[in-house]
Amino acid sequence: MISEAFIPAVASLGSVALTLGLIIFYVSKKFHVEEDPMVTILNDTLPGVNCGACGYPSCGQFAEVLVETKDSSMTCPVGGTDLAEKLGDTLGITMAEPKPITAVVLCQGDNDTARETAEYLGIQDCWAATQTYVGPKQCRYSCVGLGSCIAFCDFGAMRLENGLIIIDKDRCTGCEACIPACPTGVIVMQEKKAERYVIACNSHDKGAATKKACDAGCIACQKCVKVCDDDAIVIENFLAKIIQEKCTSCGKCIEVCPTKVNCILLEEDLKEAKQKKAS
Amino acid sequence: MKTFKTGGIHPPESKFTENTPVELMPVPKELAISLNQHLGKPAKPVVKAGSEVKKGELIGEADGFISANVHASTSGKVKSVKPHPHPGGHYAMTVFITPDGQDEWAEGLNTDPVDWHGFSKEDIIGKIKNAGIVGMGGAGFPTNVKLAPPPDKKIDTIILNGAECEPFLTADHRLMLESPEEIVEGLNIITSLFGGEARAYIGIESNKKDAIETLTSHASSKGIEVVSLKTKYPQGAEKQLINAITGRTIEPGELPFDKGCLVQNIATAVAVYEAVCKNKPLVDRVVTVSGLEIGKPKNIRALVGTSFRDISLFCGNLKESTNQIISGGPMMGKAVYTLDVPIIKTTSGMLFINNVGIEKARERTCIRCGKCVDVCPQGLAPWLLANVAQLREFDEIQLLGLANCTECGSCTYVCPSKRELVHWIKYAKALVNNRQKRKSA
Amino acid sequence: MESVNLKVSNAPFVRSKDSIESVMYNVALALAPATVMSVYLFGMRALVLTVVCILSCIAFEWLMDKARNKPNSCLDGSALVTGLLLALNVPANLPLWMVVTGSFIAIVATKHVFGGLGYNVFNPALVARVFLLISFPAAMTSWPMPAPFSFDMMVDMETGASPLGILKTDGVQAALASLSLMDGFYGTMTGSLGETSALALLAGAVWLWYKKYITMYIPLTIMGSVFLFTGLFHLIDPGTYASPAFHMVTGGLILGAFFMATDMVTSPLSIRGQLLFGLGCGLLTAVIRLWGGYPEGISFAILIMNSFVPLIDRWDLNDRKAENKKKPEKP
Description:
The structure holds 3 protein chains of 3 kinds.
Chain A: H1 2-30, H2 37-45, H3 59-69, H4 80-91, E1 101-105, E2 119-120, H5 126-132, E3 158-161, E4 164-167, E5 187-191, E6 197-199, H6 207-213, H7 223-227, E7 233-236, E8 239-242, H8 252-256, E9 263-265, H9 270-278
Antiparallel strand pairs in A: 1-5, 3-4, 6-9, 7-8
Chain B: E1 22-24, E2 31-34, E3 44-45, E4 52-53, E5 58-61, E6 70-71, E7 76-85, E8 91-99, H1 121-130, H2 143-146, E9 157-162, H3 171-178, H4 180-192, E10 199-205, H5 209-219, E11 224-229, H6 238-246, E12 261-265, H7 266-278, E13 284-290, E14 298-303, H8 308-314, E15 324-327, E16 334-336, E17 349-353, H9 357-360, H10 371-375, H11 382-390, H12 394-399, H13 410-414, H14 421-440
Helix pairs in contact in B: 3-5, 4-7, 11-14
Chain C: E1 7-8, H1 20-42, H2 44-67, H3 78-88, H4 96-112, H5 124-135, H6 137-141, E2 143-144, E3 159-160, H7 163-170, H8 172-178, H9 181-186, H10 198-210, H11 217-236, H12 244-249, H13 253-260, H14 271-291, H15 298-326
Antiparallel strand pairs in C: 2-3
């Protein structure tokens, strides 16, 4: 009696399952795409974050193009030297070593040094704030300090500390995703090197105006230009700039800088640099 | 009673200064005349620190096609030319003038009125351009450009905007009561530029009965029709006003002249009259100073460049409980962050308020009540635009009609969840612009 | 003067007085006549049940806010409205533990699992009602007889089938005999707490409509489509199908159409979407009532149509997009 009830149910459901299975089988055969196994191997080797730093929209496309062209100058900044070696071994060519780059925030106007305007109560986003008024800080070139860029970083390399974005240089891969996220354009890319100096200020205001808005701004006093033996510092539009090709990382400019926080060592943490200068 | 078709709200009118006659504000100790008082490129400064200027003398020259001249508002000495906070929220090049107290006009300016009927069309537009007249309702589009539309566009309707739909503001209202002859003459000058067949209207909201009466008595003999409009925000927005008076709809992507219309503000008409007949450049304007936190709410005639600080002192000082100062009206104005900002040609009001709701009114989730869709005068779905903006889907948001939003703020006004709808839309606009700039760069 | 502490925010600087609270408390106020009527009809037991239902909903809301680390929303009125609606949707003699189970389903499983107020796909009170109906069919379909002004706790009250139940089991003659239409309109018939009195419900609905918290597109299309559909079959065969007027006043149709289907979160935004939604609800209700396994169909109908709301809204959205694609770019 039980079997009488079961047989039609099992038979009907079973036949449905069989039919569907056959359809799936047919479709997968019919629409099968031939793929180079090498692409799959390379794709598995790549970091898989699809950050776009290589210039291709995804890691998969990077792998495809690499297999097709075997272009040894293609680099993945995220993977670094290790990955370049691995890719080279897989393909049997010598890959170019990527130059490690990192994002740098050209601003040191945190809540202690930068003067505030009025309290901002709109949407907590840098773009929304700068579009309402100059922003929570008086300096219109500064890091707005609401952290819109953090969401764009795939690697968790950015954090907001005391109203200023701090970049973790160990985590930053230089994918440039944060650059379009910043309304004031205060983030730039720099080559990663053991010792590297940049002027961490973005203000093109005249010295007096900069000084009024922020304690840590470049006031274009020319002192660093005069002290530099290698002519590596120029002042453009009221802002000092270090020409990286000429800079020998002697550190003299830091000693003379009147605002004391003007130049930072790239490879050291900001706070360490501050302590060093203070001592 | 006429009104526009889609949407609209009716916020409390709060027109405290309706019956306060315009008071002339004395020349302050310092003037900060911004060189960016209009849409388009800022004017080029033509004076340096130390130059002596007379009232009405050119200090900033129009730079490019869409730009406007800027004149000294009083006689005195130029102290400096430097970036200074602007009521729009950002910095702008500003000419600081220390007045000499004479308030002396430059040669040939502010003469006795002459008859304009003999002037040619080019003369009139040239005079308007020289006087640096811009749309005084808020947008600040250079008037000489607006009055010279492409030759293939035929203008048959000229509308003077006396709606003044923003709460608190009464500057245009007072102007309509106190200088109706100038308004009518100004409108006649504008109409004369478009030949005989153009019809002229003055649209006034029905909460200004006295203004409707005054203007009707002055205008009806001159072939101008005064239209009484239902009190509804945003009646004074260009597209809505055209729809209310003519029934024509400005489609997205179109400009008013595509539908044969031209809209000018009441204050602009007076400025046009003064520029053409009296050769007077635009150096002062009527400003409503209002809000619950100012000692004596007033309508004042102040020189362009007078700082908010001087005006607040003139109007009985602000109370300590003030937490927001707004340049413009409460629906579309901007909160300023310092009292140093000066008034510019487009500042129609100045509000001192204690916005208590602002602390606790944090955004909450959308409950899909659909009120924003009901009130949107442009027929958009603001909640959707805001949601998509939050997700940063900028291709999608353009398809939803982002560019058609006039940022009137009706949606944010009605939202029970207190969402910053219009701010999200402005945010999306800023990011879409930025992306296009990056693409083209 | 320099001591003023300025704050910058965005326009508009004036806001309407409407808030989530005002919306929710007005809905609750609109349900007040029906609640009072239910206490009048079913006595103290109805009052106790309503209070338990509301309090348990608010408690679950509070717990979920804590658990999800969200700002406290238990007093924003939405839990109150859900609790009140759920109470009005169950029979007066339902055991209290079942009521609390219903509140759990409404607040936790229907609302907060989807993300809280504004994100739920289905109307919480309705899901809870349907859950209870399927899980405890006996308790949910033994309706107490109304006994006006009896203020005992009605522990062993007299029960009977609802008019729609009689219609389903005993046919149209018995159903019509059990009830006069005026009884149905005033509410002296068997049924859940709030669905019996059409008069009290309509009074509340008119208040909501007058205050512009609901529009009449959805309720009127539901009522109209049920009326026409059942009327059509009544005309064909009056012996099998009850008259449309009978369908109007019995069951939860009015409660559902005016208070549940119009829930802002779970109904479409555009007018044509609302009309389609109402039409779907009405037809499904009529179909379930006439031929379905359950005597009452409005809850199922609304829930089924709730699931179509994203689709209906997408229709509107796609049209907006298509319209903007056609138009030329702004110069």
